[in-house]
Amino acid sequence: MSGRGIQTSLLLAMACLIGVAHAQLPPEPRHARQEGFLPDPAAARLASFGFDALLADFYWLQAVQIAGGSGSPVGQSHRLGALLDLVTQLDPWVDHPYRFAALWMTDDEAAVRKANALLHRSFEYHPDDWRNRFYLAFNHYYYLGEDAEAAAVLEPAIDLPRAPRYLGRLVARLRSQEEGLETSAAFLQELVRRAPDEYAKAGYLRALDEIETERRARILDRAQQVFRERQGRELARVEELVTVPPAVLRRLPPEPHGSVWELDGQGTIVSAELRYRYRPKIDGTSRGLIQQFREKSQTGRGDS
Amino acid sequence: MKHHLRAISAIATNTVRDAVRNKVLYILLFFALVLIGTSFLLATLSYVERERILQDVALASIRLFGAAIAIFIGVGLVHREVDRRTIYTILSKPVSRVDFLVGKYLGLVTTLWIQLAVMSAGFVAVSLASGAPVNGGHGIALALTALELAVLVAIATLFSSFATPFLAACYSVGLYMVGHVTRDLRALGALSDAESVGVLTTWLHRLLPDLESFNWTIEAVHGLPIPYDQVAWAALMGVGWCVAFLTTAALVFERRDFR
Fold it and tell me: A216 near A255, Cβ under 8 Å?
């Protein structure tokens, strides 16, 4: 074979070799295969040689690709947590990544708690942003069932710039779940006292009115429980608490608005005027999702 | 004195002329401008805070390419003249070695600052085109980047006064990298159980140029308040390092034998 023939053959052989070898290698980038190496934030800062912000952007874009890419973000909470921890340590003044953590790190309790830790970090760098406190309070209430923590986190947000007016009433509702109605009422009285305008004051007074309604509804709840135990059936009408012998109550507590008490679709006693009970409002679908999340977290804890 | 100033001015002017003929300069400037321009595309990968990403990338490009130009042109500053033997002609005239070195330094700093002005114009244009705010903080960040580049040129001048361009580039890049991590090293050293590590990192931070003092890009991009006293101290420190490196370079260069 001539020299040129050997060279051509060698080139063709190498092209085949490269093609075969390349075909064996995974075409996806490392982060898509969840194999990407994520450095320790302190090491990353050291290795950035002053380009911290640029490196933070790099990891932020990776986080966005995970949440918004073609693959499902479910089950990626922990990787997102590591990425967002890097982003917020390299450039702690970033704004949205803190709330992004709250939105997407919801696979299990550990992920939610990691997101909460990131949101806590945001308070130092964005002390005037009510939204970070709102997202943290939501995580405490919705995923972790920690109403008192949610109220404690949200309370300082009431007076922050651009905070919505309903925050004070929401805090009162959250407090009513664990700390009782008296605490909520005292809190609302304070809000009424320092209300910046009549509109806000009217909102807080309405919430106080709801608390009074709730206080009476809870008396009826206890009576309903006694009725159930005595009669072995559910109430058909609220008046049965008084009319069915032996009567649980001598008379029904008056409905504060001059209206009546009635049973809602789930058999809960409500005021016919308000038609809801005093607790953070949550729809049936969301309630089911919370239940699923908490059961999953319980199972996870049991497994570990 | 007048005579020295005239000599320095003539050498600086020639250095600018020489530098603008350097193709490497244009290649680096081209890439810097391309990266500043494409920062707009990179920012679109995020659905929020696009302006921040755009300015982060653009300012990082300016700093990175500025440093690259400073080091890679700076390290050849003296060597080229020796290599082309033009240094003999220059030094045979009534021009001292110090005049030569200072002239070369000032010429390259002027060239770099022109480059920086071009890149800054690109940054402002891209920012305004994409609706990202440009304020005084950006001006301060860019001014301190200019000072950092002047320090880098002084470092490169020092190493080029006694080493080959390759070695001078290695030393300069090394010092540039270390200069940006001394603060973090000091913080990490303070966490160490071994007291000697803490002492060592503290002295490293004190003795080496703290180049992070010139990095105000995060504050500029986030619109954070910039403490003017710190900027003033950083500027003063920058001038101090430039003079210190140039003086050392002059001491070395005066003893150098070109035969």
Answer: yes
